[in-house]
Write a structure and sequence with these properties.
By secondary structure, the protein is of the alpha+beta class. The chain has 13 helices and 16 strands. Helix 1 packs antiparallel against helix 13 and helix 2 packs parallel to helix 6. It is globular, with a radius of gyration of 20 Å.
């Protein structure tokens, strides 16, 4: 059953100035009016109540279809927190320890090699001095990478093996994981942070540990209990699926991209725990409420409060931020003042990050410029949906934070 999404409180009841909240629509309307975004939808809630909901523009410009409350969006890397929750549910059942080597379940990772020098054509590698552990997958510290980074010889090796923006045709998650295990690591496990296919490997880990395909685990253990009936690896309502756009290099205006538009229409061969899901604003809002409520929603508890607290803590060694520990590459969040937890970025220093958000806020985004955050201190969740690749095109997330927090008046 689809959950209805609507404003269910007077903004003043939860400490917002309604006129100040309207600045969100005023600001983002310009993106649509100027042709930079096809359309968008934003949701802001506080203390479990939706205080603000706005939408503008089209889910499909060419077909003249407006953004609707039930529009399906490709959430890409906003899949990662869901996969991380799945893993931590198994952790709570005693299936593994966070420090366990993943090779116990994924033997292909028994003897990883680490790139030392050379080129993509002639890499020089050495044996890993540390096994890849479960927490390395959850924190992107395993030494894995993405082909689309274009900054390291190993990234090029990924591309040569069919891993840039997608996976080799016909290869399932088990096969992709075996292939990733054969490629060199960018660094010794646990020594640095690098945004990567780690969460896809984590999805395979969930399959092996649970004995279920990832889509089945998600559906039975997470989506059905939380009432997220419109979320999955493909949508049964293709007409409600938003079209995908990219910026025109000459004008910056959003133009339709047919190549990626097939994503989400049919079930993929590789069930990507790192970026494969399609969802709705209502469904992902329920997921954020489950997180804000520390593992429980409407009487259904999937995680204990201490587990959610651990996930939302900075796990980077020494408590440093990504700017000091990460590689200065693309990620879905800024690096200054942000650490990384078990599946999310974690705001460690609002002053360093130059943001109005609260210390302890955790968040992530997706490649098509979608984003969410959960702020336990202010009891706020916020969501933004659109379909523009890549997410680094516009500073949507920073401005959304400014516009949400300036509206708090209590």
């Amino acid at each position: 059953m689809a959950m209805e999404l609507k404003v269910d409180t007077d903004p003043a009841e939860v400490g917002f100035d309604a006129r100040r909240l309207d600045r969100i629509e005023d600001y983002f309307a310009r993106y649509v009016d100027d042709g930079l975004l096809p359309g968008w939808l934003a949701v802001v809630s506080r203390r479990g109540k939706i205080a603000y909901l706005a939408k503008r523009g089209h889910r499909d410009v060419e077909a003249g279809l407006d953004v609707a409350v039930d529009t399906r969006w490709r959430i890409f890397s906003m899949t990662k927190p869901i996969t991380s929750v799945a893993a931590m549910m198994l952790y709570e059942e005693g299936a593994f320890e966070l420090t366990d080597p993943i090779a116990r379940w994924l033997p292909e990772f028994a003897e990883p090699r680490v790139f030392v020098k050379g080129s993509a054509l002639k890499p020089v590698t050495e044996a890993a001095t540390e096994p890849i552990r479960v927490w390395h997958l959850l924190t992107h510290t395993a030494g894995l990478t993405y082909g689309f980074h274009h900054s390291h010889p190993v990234d090029a090796i990924y591309r040569e093996n069919g891993f840039e923006w997608g996976t080799p045709p016909g290869a399932d998650l088990a096969e992709c994981t075996r292939r990733w295990a054969e490629l060199p690591l960018v660094f010794q496990p646990g020594s640095e942070w690098n945004y990567s296919v780690a969460t896809d490997v984590l999805g395979r880990f969930v399959e092996v540990v649970s004995g279920q395909p990832l889509d089945e685990f998600f559906a039975r253990r997470i989506f059905e209990p939380l009432g997220m009936g419109s979320t999955g690896f493909a949508t049964d309502s293709a007409d409600e699926l938003a079209a995908l756009y990219v910026p025109d290099p000459a004008t910056g205006k959003a133009v339709r991209n047919e190549g990626f538009s097939q994503v989400g229409r049919t079930k993929p061969a590789c069930l990507s725990g790192g970026g494969g899901l399609v969802s709705t604003a209502a469904d992902y809002h329920r997921f954020t409420q489950f997180l804000l409520n520390r593992g429980e929603l409407d009487g259904v508890r999937l995680l204990g409060p201490r587990t959610v607290g651990l996930m939302a803590s900075n796990h980077l060694p020494g408590g440093v931020d990504l700017e000091r520990y990460g590689r200065p590459l693309f990620a879905e969040m800024p690096f200054h003042g942000f650490g990384f937890g078990l599946g999310f970025s974690v705001l460690t220093d609002p002053v360093k990050a130059k943001t109005l958000s609260s210390k302890g806020e955790y968040a992530w985004g997706g490649a098509a410029s979608t984003a969410f955050w959960v702020d336990p201190a202010a009891e706020i969740t916020a969501l933004f949906f659109t379909q523009l690749l890549p997410s680094s095109t516009h500073p949507i997330r920073q401005y959304l934070r400014q516009l949400v927090y300036q509206a708090i008046v209590d």
